[in-house]
């Protein structure tokens, strides 16, 4: 990332900070939080080099360190022979290292592509969970109720759903334009552009849809009957069988509270 301050001053400060830790605490720094960033250190004793990376605090130290180790390895492979040729010394001229900035940029471009693919796969898994449970809820409404109750539920939900789309948080959101609902065809989530959509907005929206639908079901059919429907449609079995997966997606508590009507 770009800094508006002098890079030499930053490097000197970070090095001095690490040396202070070694003197006062008899160990090198591993990670600190400063200036809204997470700074991760790794040493290369054989060349007397210190490598430091700064990232956003929401990125885990282990991930930053792994990336920093990859950059350190590439740097040593590129310049190790030069250090040996100069007797493991360096005259302070950083210009010889400037081409390595392109190597770092290539690494981060690759990592960015991997992260995008991972995020898309993660979001696809989340949508798959919501879609499967929506299918089970559709089966409950369409096959386990008389027409009067079914129409009452669908009419109330249609009104509530249209109101939901008008909330400031969800209004005119491009990722929601391809999410459709009708009383005849139910829900469609398959046309969402997973690469361009805002994950948090989409998940909050789907959670709101589920809360509204379950609330309407309970209001019209009662808590005990809804628990019976959920059990017969094997929603509890589905949640149980996918519990570890739901935990990884941070959806376990949401679905447990929702369908056990806590």
Task: List the defining traits of the structure above.
mainly alpha, 262 residues, 61% helix, 10% strand, 5 strands, 2 domains
Helix/strand structural class: mainly alpha
Strand order of the largest sheet: 1-2-3
Order of helices and strands: HEEEHHHEEHHHHH
Poorly predicted tracts of residues: none
The gross shape turns out to be elongated
First-to-last CA distance: 46 Å
| Largest beta-sheet details | 3 strands, antiparallel
The total count of helices amounts to 9
Look at the structure and give the mean pLDDT: 84
DSSP, total strands: 5
Please give the domain count: 2
Radius of gyration: 27 Å
Q: What proportion strand?
A: 5-15%
Brief synopsis:
This protein has about 260 residues and is mainly α. The protein has helices spanning about 5-25, 60-85, 100-145, 145-165, 200-220, 225-230, 235-240, 245-250, 250-260; strands spanning about 30-35, 35-45, 50-55, 180, 185-190.
Write the layout of secondary structure elements.
Layout: H1 7-25, E1 31-34, E2 37-44, E3 49-56, H2 61-85, H3 100-143, H4 147-165, E4 180-182, E5 186-188, H5 199-221, H6 223-232, H7 235-241, H8 243-248, H9 252-259
Antiparallel strand pairs: 1-2, 2-3, 4-5
Helix pairs in contact: 2-3, 3-5, 4-5, 5-6
Question: Can you characterise this structure?
Answer:
By secondary structure, the protein is mainly α. The protein has 2 domains: about 5-100, no CATH class; about 115-260, no CATH class. It has 9 helices and 5 strands, in the order H-E-E-E-H-H-H-E-E-H-H-H-H-H. The strands form 2 sheets. The protein has a 3-stranded antiparallel beta sheet. Strands 4-5 form a two-stranded antiparallel sheet. Helix 3 (about 100-145) packs parallel to helix 5. The chain is elongated and about 90 Å long. The mean pLDDT is about 85.
């Amino acid at each position: 990332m770009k800094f508006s301050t002098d890079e030499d001053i930053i490097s000197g400060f970070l090095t001095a900070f690490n040396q202070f830790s070694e003197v006062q605490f008899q160990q090198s720094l591993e990670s600190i939080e400063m200036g809204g960033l997470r700074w991760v250190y790794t040493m290369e004793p054989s060349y007397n080099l210190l490598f430091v990376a700064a990232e956003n605090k929401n990125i885990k130290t282990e991930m930053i360190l792994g990336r920093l180790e990859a950059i350190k390895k590439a740097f040593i492979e590129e310049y190790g022979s030069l250090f040996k040729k100069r007797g493991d010394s360096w005259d302070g001229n950083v210009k010889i290292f400037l081409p390595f900035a392109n190597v770092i940029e290539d690494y981060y471009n690759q990592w960015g592509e991997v992260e995008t693919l991972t995020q898309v796969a993660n979001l696809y898994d989340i949508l798959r969970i919501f879609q499967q449970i929506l299918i089970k809820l559709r089966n409950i409404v369409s096959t386990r109720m008389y027409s009067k109750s079914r129409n009452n539920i669908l009419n109330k939900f249609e009104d509530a759903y249209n109101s939901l789309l008008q909330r400031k948080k969800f209004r005119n959101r491009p990722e929601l334009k391809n999410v459709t609902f009708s009383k005849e065809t139910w829900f469609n989530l398959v046309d969402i552009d997973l690469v361009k959509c805002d994950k948090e907005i989409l998940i909050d929206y789907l959670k709101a849809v589920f809360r509204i639908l379950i609330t309407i079901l309970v209001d019209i059919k009662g808590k005990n009957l809804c628990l019976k429907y959920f059990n017969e449609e094997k929603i509890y079995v589905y949640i149980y069988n996918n519990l570890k997966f739901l935990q990884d997606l941070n959806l376990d508590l949401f679905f447990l509270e929702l369908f056990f009507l806590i």
